[in-house]
Each structure stands twice: as structure tokens, then as C-alpha cells.
């Protein structure tokens, strides 16, 4: 499909250079194959920074802190950082909050490693940050504090049995016991 469109386009406009053809292919791939889901967002203040993807290839959108004053994260403490917005997550989906690697290098990470926001939650998104370092860390208004992505959720129907159909146990914690 992409090749057909590129050949059609290039045959009618031979003046385009190789660079423009590569750009066209990249844009067609982005338009045709990049799934987009729409989530309603409500800003609770007029100056909230919206979540945004830093690059075209980013898997997650950055979330910014919404603070009236700087927040000093003491070592070993957990803090609830407001974002200043609410979202309406479609049923059958969840939003996952993930830590930012740049903050993790400083010992700042999400308290629950990956945060799940269910579709029936309608309050302000808050980011639980933990300071695992030995030094205090300052979070400022507008600072990128986490990343978010939208994922499809499959509900589990549990079926009780007297014995599992696959009952080989390898012992220990994890699949290999190591």
C-alpha cells in the first residue's frame, strides 16, 4: 500500500528528491499505521502543562508536576505530586504511569514502580514519588515527573478446578527457582 502510494506520487512529481520521498514514506507510515486512542482531558487550572510526547517515536507521554511551591523530597519519603488534570479513560483501558529514567538516575522513582489508573477513576492524576537517594531532591512546577501510556485491558474469568491442567512446578520464587 505504501509502496503503491509512493510510486503513484513519485511518478506524477519527478522533481522530488530522494530525501523528500523518504520523508513521504515516513509520514505515510505514521498516518496509516500509528494507532491513536482518544482520551478526554480536563485541566483543573488554566496554566497546567498537558501531557505530551517528547518525540514522534516516544511510547509514553510525559506528565508534569503542577505545584504552587517547590516540593522538597526528603530521602526515604513518599510524596503525592499533583498534575493539575483529570482524564476520562475509556472502559476496557487503563493508563499506566511509569518512572522517568532521568529521575531514576537520581534515586527518584514511582512508589509502586508502575501505577495503574483504572477507567472508573475520575479524580486528579497524582504521581507517587519516592526518594530512594540519600539526598533531598526538589520537584519544581512543570517538571516532568512520570510518563503515561494507555493500554487495552483484558478481564479475566476465573474457573475453579480441582487440579491445574498443567501442574509441573519448578519450585522456588520465579519460574526457575533462582
Description:
- By secondary structure, this protein is of the alpha+beta class.
- The protein folds into two domains: 2-33, no CATH class; 40-152, Deoxyuridine 5'-Triphosphate Nucleotidohydrolase, Chain A (Distorted Sandwich).
- Helices cover 17% and strands 28% of the residues.
- It is built from three helices and eleven strands.
- The chain has helices spanning 2-12, 18-33, 101-104; strands at residues 40-43, 61-64, 71-73, 78-82, 85-88, 93-98, 108-110, 115-117, 126-131, 137-139, 144-152.
- The strands form four sheets. A four-stranded antiparallel sheet has the order 2-11-6-8, with no helix packed on it. Strands 4-9-7 form a three-stranded antiparallel sheet. A two-stranded antiparallel ribbon has the order 1-5.
- α1 packs antiparallel against α2 (18-33).
- It starts with a helix and ends in a 26-residue tail after the last strand.
- The relative contact order is 0.17.
